[in-house]
C-alpha cells in the first residue's frame, strides 16, 4: 500500500507536464486564464460549466481544477444534469475570485472522492496556489511565472507574522477580513465594539495595525480611534478606517481623529493588501 503510494507520487512529480482544468462561463475570461496559466510544464484545458467539467474529468487525467467564483452561479445555472458519481479518486480545487465562498463548492467537490480546496483572490495568488498544488519545479517554469511568484512571496514577507486588530460590529466582516489577512500570514485579533478594542489595547502592546469600522453602535469608529491615540504605545501605529457608507467629509473626520488611511466597503482585497504593505513595509 505504502509502496504503491510512493510510486504514484514519484510518477506524478516526474511527469514533464501537469494537467490543469479551468472553469468559467465567460469566454473572454476563459481565454485569459488559459493564456495566463499555461506553460511548457502545464497544459490547460477550459470548460464553461459544471457539466462540461464533469465530462472532461471523466475522460481525462486532470491534476487540478480552477473554478471561477462566477461559475458557482453562472455555470450551475446553465447545468441541466444531475450530480454525478465521483469521476476521480482525488482532486485539488482552487476557487478563484473575490465573490466566491468555498462553502459553495459542495457540488464541485462531489466530482472526486476526496478533495483539497484552496482560495485565490488575485491572479498572482492563483498562479501561486496552482503551482503549489501541481508541485511545479521553479526550474521548469517560464521566467514570467517565476518573476510573478518571486514578487508575490517578497511582498508577503512584509506582512508575515504581523499582528492586526479588526474592530467591526458585523461578524461577517470580521470573518472576511480575518481570512484575507491570515492568508497573508498575519495574526489577527478581533473585537465587535470599540470599547472592548480600547480596553484590550491598553493591556497588549504588540498590535502592528488596526482596521477600524466607522459605523458602530455605542462607541463609533471615530471616537474609538481618538481613544486609541491616547494610549502611548499606539500613538504611531497605523489605523485604517473602513466604512460601508462613505459620506462627504468622512475621510477628513477619520484623519483628524488619528487614522492613517481610509477604505470603503466592500473592501477590495488587493487594495487592502497593498495599503497594509505600504504602512508595514
Task: Annotate the secondary structure layout.
Layout: H1 2-14, E1 18-23, H2 27-37, E2 42-47, H3 50-59, E3 64-68, H4 74-78, E4 88-96, H5 106-109, E5 112-120, H6 123-133, H7 143-159, E6 163-167, H8 171-183, E7 187-191, H9 194-203, E8 209-213, H10 221-229, E9 239-243, H11 250-257, E10 261-264, H12 269-280
Parallel strand pairs: 1-2, 1-3, 3-4, 4-5, 6-7, 6-8, 8-9, 9-10
Helix pairs in contact: 6-7, 9-10
Keywords:
10 strands; Rossmann fold; 44% helix; alpha/beta; single chain; 281 residues; 5-stranded parallel sheet; 21% strand; disordered N terminus; 12 helices
Describe what you observe in this structure:
The chain is of the alpha/beta class and 281 residues long. α6 (123-133) crosses α7 and α9 (194-203) runs parallel beside α10 (221-229). β6, α8 (171-183) and β7 (187-191) form a beta-alpha-beta unit. It is built from 12 helices and 10 strands. The strands form 2 sheets. A 5-stranded parallel beta sheet has the order 2-1-3-4-5, sandwiched between helices. A 5-stranded parallel beta sheet has the order 7-6-8-9-10, sandwiched between helices.
Amino acid at each position: 500500500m505504502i509502496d504503491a503510494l510512493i510510486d504514484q507520487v514519484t510518477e506524478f512529480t516526474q511527469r514533464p507536464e501537469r494537467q490543469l482544468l479551468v472553469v468559467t462561463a465567460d469566454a473572454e475570461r476563459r481565454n485569459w486564464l488559459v493564456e495566463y496559466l499555461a506553460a511548457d510544464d502545464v497544459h490547460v484545458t477550459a470548460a464553461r460549466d459544471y457539466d462540461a467539467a464533469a465530462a472532461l474529468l471523466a475522460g481525462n487525467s486532470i491534476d487540478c481544477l480552477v473554478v471561477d467564483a462566477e461559475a458557482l452561479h453562472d455555470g450551475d445555472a446553465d447545468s441541466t444534469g444531475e450530480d454525478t458519481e465521483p469521476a476521480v479518486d482525488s482532486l485539488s480545487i482552487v476557487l478563484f475570485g473575490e465573490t466566491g465562498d468555498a462553502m459553495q463548492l459542495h457540488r464541485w467537490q462531489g466530482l472526486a472522492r476526496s478533495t483539497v480546496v484552496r482560495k485565490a483572490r488575485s491572479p498572482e495568488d492563483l498562479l501561486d496556489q496552482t503551482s503549489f498544488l501541481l508541485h511545479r519545479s521553479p526550474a521548469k517554469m517560464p521566467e514570467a511565472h517565476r518573476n510573478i511568484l518571486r514578487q508575490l512571496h517578497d511582498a508577503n514577507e512584509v506582512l508575515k507574522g504581523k499582528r492586526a486588530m479588526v474592530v467591526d460590529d458585523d461578524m461577517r466582516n470580521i470573518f472576511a477580513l480575518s481570512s484575507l489577512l491570515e492568508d497573508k500570514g498575519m495574526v489577527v485579533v478581533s473585537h465587535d465594539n470599540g470599547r472592548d478594542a480600547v480596553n484590550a489595547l491598553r493591556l497588549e502592546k504588540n498590535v502592528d495595525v488596526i482596521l477600524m469600522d466607522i459605523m458602530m453602535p455605542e462607541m463609533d469608529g471615530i471616537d474609538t480611534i481618538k481613544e486609541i491615540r491616547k494610549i502611548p504605545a499606539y500613538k504611531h501605529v497605523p489605523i485604517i478606517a473602513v466604512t460601508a457608507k462613505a459620506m462627504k467629509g468622512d475621510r477628513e473626520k477619520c484623519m483628524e481623529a488619528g487614522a492613517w488611511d481610509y477604505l470603503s466597503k466592500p473592501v477590495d482585497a488587493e487594495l487592502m493588501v497593498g495599503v497594509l504593505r505600504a504602512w508595514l513595509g
